Predict the 3D structure of the following.
Amino acid sequence: MLSRREHGLVELKDKLRNKGFSKDEIDESVGYVHKHDLQNDHRYIEMVIRSRITKGYGPGYIVGYLMQKGIEKDVITSLLNEYDVRWDKVLAEVVQKKFGCNYDDNAKKIRFLIGRGFSYEQVEKNIY
């Protein structure tokens, strides 16, 4: 699993449990990969943050996604704050890609961008 992409610790344990491994086997395997730095939550969080920003998702979506994967909110927000992200630029690129420059339905833009994890304040500041 780790040869394809990074996984969070909780996500890795869940996948192994779903494949039918016992708790002892999971603990032994996870201990081994963690000891040899094959699995690292910090690296996993950075990978998800970079990937989601590139795909045009906002901070709300990123935090929610990682919390679903078992990562604590404090850890996520501290790593997210380390990135010097210009959310207004990301938001503008998403609007341009999705709607083009001649689209006037602001309500539809707002709903879409909030669904992408941008706050209403971010959207309001950049749409109007």
